[in-house]
Amino acid sequence: MTHLAILCVRNEAAFLLEWLAHHRAVGFEEFVVFSNDCSDGTDTMLDRLQALGGLTHIPNEGPYDKGGIQFTALKAAAKLPQVQKADWILPLDVDEFVNIHTGDNSLNALHTALPDATAITLTWRLFGNAGQTRYQDTQVLETFTRCAPRVMHWPWRAAMFKTLYRNDGTYRKPGVHRPRDPDKARLANARWYDGSGRALPDSFKTKRIFSNFGQDNHALVQLNHYPLGALESYVLKADRGRAVHSDDLLGLDYFVERNFNTEADNSIHAVAAARQAELTSLKSDQTLARLHDAAVVWRKERFEKLLTSDPFRALFGRLLMTPPSQPLSRADAQFLLHHARLDPKNAAGAH
Fold first, then answer.
1. How far apart are CA 67 and CA 336, in angstroms?
2. Is 0.85 topped by the overall pTM?
3. Are 43 and 35 in contact (CB under 8 A)?
4. CA-to-CA distance for 261 and 255, rounded, in angstroms?
5. Is 91:6 a contact under the CB 8 Å cutoff?
6. Is the pLDDT of residue 148 over 80?
């Protein structure tokens, strides 16, 4: 049984090796990684990883579909033999880490728990910036351990998921949050489960991109999401731009809806030994180690340059003044949801 992860990156070489090491530790054997417009050596690092085996690097230089950079990459991925022959597929971002809570914390253990699943929704658990201001070359999973509660009532984006799906022909194309292009003849037999092992209704087979919130969606598996990093890293993320909504500039709205630090969650450390062994092996390659160190220097230098420009300097100042976000009560969330359901253009209105 082969598991393949699909990744799109730009200027993420300082984080790439940890991400790869972790996902190898939980059981992914193959990776298809698209890169675009890299200045920090990410593309060169991916070329080296491809040469070492188990990873395919594809430059994603455009032109891009109207759906954006990531959509264009996933559209191309559907045609690749590596993707077509994989048994299970999961599109991810470099700030997302699969965290399995059953058995030996591996993908195979998850399949043992849900043996007839066609698709499993991995709901985000949002990890805040943990009070970190300046970027440091430390492991993300060791540095950022503060997060949102297991049960969130708002915002609805806190319940978004990525989908691990069986590549059996039920869905013919990968998508950002869920597989696309279903074979209607197969849909009746498709079985969707959430991260707590609950069977999901038919609406998930074709439409949904967020879990039911106000409940724990993480009993068997969650997707640790680290969208912010240190404040310095968030400024660099704003400079990099978004892979899906590439024309949307990141600001305080994105930050506030994700900077939850109310609980500690170290459960992902269950595979720390295996992850560290993989990471040590990767960094034993002198080329990869050199490229990682160069990317760390690039990030520092890029941040210093960005602060000479007012939009980024102003953003950093606002971030410094913004306290951690507080989860809303059920009553406050229900008030907002009531009005969200009245808006036909709001995705939350379907919930």
1. 29
2. yes
3. yes
4. 12
5. yes
6. yes
